Amino acid sequence: MGLEDDAREYHRTDPPGKIEISTTKPTNTQRDLSLAYSPGVAAPCLDIDEDEERAFEYTAKGNMVGVVSNGTAVLGLGDIGAQASKPVMEGKGVLFKRFADIDVFDIELDETDVDAFCRSVEAMEPTFGGINLEDIAGPECFEIEQRLRESMDIPVFHDDQHGTAIISGAGLLNAVDILDKDISEMEITFSGAGASAIATAKFYVELGADPDNITMCDSSGIITEQRAENDDVNEYKKEFARDLPEGDLADAMEGADMFVGLSVGGIVSQEMVASMAEDPIVFAMANPEPEIGYEAAREARDDTVIMATGRSDYPNQVNNVLGFPFLFRGALDVRATSITENMKMAAAEALAELARKDVPDAVVKAYGDQPLQYGPEYVIPKPVDPRVLFEVAPAVAEAAMDEGVARTEIDIDAYSEKLEARLGKSREMMRVVLNKAKSTDQRIALAEGTDEKMVRAAAQIQEQGIGDPVLLGNSDEIEGIAADLGLDFTPEIVDPRVDETEGYADRLHELRQRKGITRSEASELVQRDTNYLGSAMVEAGDADALLTGLTHHYPSALRPPLEVIGTADDADYAAGVYMLTFKNRVVFIADATVNQDPDEEVLEEITRHTAELARRFNVEPRAALLSYSNFGSVENEGTRKPRAAAASLREDPDVDFPVDGEMQADTAVVEEILTDTYEFSELDQPANVLVFPNLEAGNIAYKLLQRLGGAEAIGPMLVGMDKPVHVMQRGDEVKDIVNLAGVAAVDAQQE
């Protein structure tokens, strides 16, 4: 099937459409229903009657946006009417929910009269925290938005006007930065004079463009003062009428610094681009076909052309989904009464700033591993970049508070963390540790310092204040990588070729001479293998923690730290722990990487150290030692080991957390089984520390939970070492390195 048939099937598959309503409170018992509806619902109703602001406290209003359209100007389809526009409005609701966790009712009004349309929307104000106007024809859309903004006490935003303005405005800020142009002196030509073009031109003026330097063309040519005097254009176009001779788009583009296309595809030739000023900016945003194709525009010039389109298959996509979800998120969360120009400006500036930062690996993978680095082909962030939420929404919220349109004040730093938590439990848990890591400066040695991911991670570790990264390896290579990546930081490097390492070789020889390592071999190991160098640095106190494993097999990366640093005084064994996060639950799984067939003493140690790790994440541990047996239901050597380890832990007065076993996995994590069937268990709530009977079981379990259970995995985190060491999995992403650096920094604080 083709795209159109696929889309029809996608929409008609049961249940039809793309959205549904779900409950957010329990509705399982008679009492639940009496609270949700009659008679309990009367209490919040009466409270709201006394104070309407309590609607934000008791109802979904504060997270509810109405997407309202009459279907008179549906993108690419034109005036198809209210009913036919419904799939588009449902789709808008999907984007609100997917990118900013905002709930939506789509409202299709079969009404083209401006007065009647406005009255209908105004009557719905008690329902919504904001109104997103969509696909309404011009020039009526201007009047509708203006009237509703004046009459309603909630944000009203016409995305067709302002969305493109904000996103392309962010691209413009970065384009002039890269090209070293002065926006106030630029000649800007617009193709198109509809709602989006006029709003975009106005927004560019807010960004610093001179309105006298903006030439706007409609289907009849340049909008001139003579045409305005002859009433050849509507009142909204007249604002951009210029004292120029009449001409067409080709005339308007000659010598222009920037072309902004919001019209129809294929109307700009290579000759027209060639006629523009030096290093031109070409934003050809008609969809699905741009005014000129990406390759054609680039090939028309020998100098730099910063090109943007509305398409996802080319660099610099101007996609409105980068704007409206996050603009409304910030506005809703401070209960803003409107969306102001300053709030839009804050969104554009935040987007521009985000494009200048290192791009997460997950975003790069989503776009086919193509290079994404600030420059002519990357002036606008990608829509799937999760950081847009907690970069743009706080900027919008802060602007609303500064301007006095916010009903409530919030702490912006705490708000950013709250937004980050919306992206998943793992981010919420890691934020606990990363905040702890920032309290002191720990030196974190990164063994594989010449790997690009390590260099990028070092920059982020330093930028976020997690610690002081020390890259180990060839300094020329590391500095070259940092320069190629455009990273704005000067890394600390220990280069065994040129830096003094003999003291580390002496210490390694001292520690391993009775294991067959000679002095010359120790020197060679420190010079050649940065795992040994990093381990020796940590053992000597010249670094507080070590990260390695990115380019090594786990056992080979673990061996040097074990030989040089060893296990803690209260530990004979190290173990690997994964933290798995689900929507409303966190569990720690051990051992998943180190001990193949632990006896009861090893299981006991693993449990202690994993419980300590859980507390570093502010999780109070409840430990279960797992088996295929429940409390003696099967008697053999395999079931006796976890049973004996659990008993020994319970008898130890220093163990201050509940622990039980052996038990089956479902017994450990299902509260009803624990409390109904095994009410004698030491656990009165489901376990969050799961200790597996052997490496095979632990490794299989965490991977199944991650791949089939939807869990996010953080780790492996190494416990039981004398000093902080963490061995990553080969191929981990930059965010994994940064997360483990945070864990290592907190480990070092405990020392």
TrEMBL record:
Residues 8-17 have a biased composition (Basic and acidic residues). SUPFAM superfamilies: Aminoacid dehydrogenase-like, N-terminal domain, Isocitrate/Isopropylmalate dehydrogenase-like, NAD(P)-binding Rossmann-fold domains. Its EC number is 1.1.1.40. Residues 161-401 form the Malic enzyme NAD-binding domain. It comes from the Archaea. It holds the Pfam family PTA_PTB. The keyword Iron does not apply. It is an enzyme of class 1 (oxidoreductase). GO terms for molecular function: malate dehydrogenase (decarboxylating) (NADP+) activity; metal ion binding. The keyword Phosphoprotein does not apply. Its cofactor is Mn(2+); Mg(2+). InterPro entries: Aminoacid_DH-like_N_sf (IPR046346), Malate_Decarboxylase (IPR051674), Malic_N_dom (IPR012301), Malic_N_dom_sf (IPR037062), Malic_NAD-bd (IPR012302), Malic_NAD-bd_bact_type (IPR045213), ME_PTA (IPR012188), NAD(P)-bd_dom_sf (IPR036291). This is NADP-dependent malic enzyme. It comes from Halolamina salina.
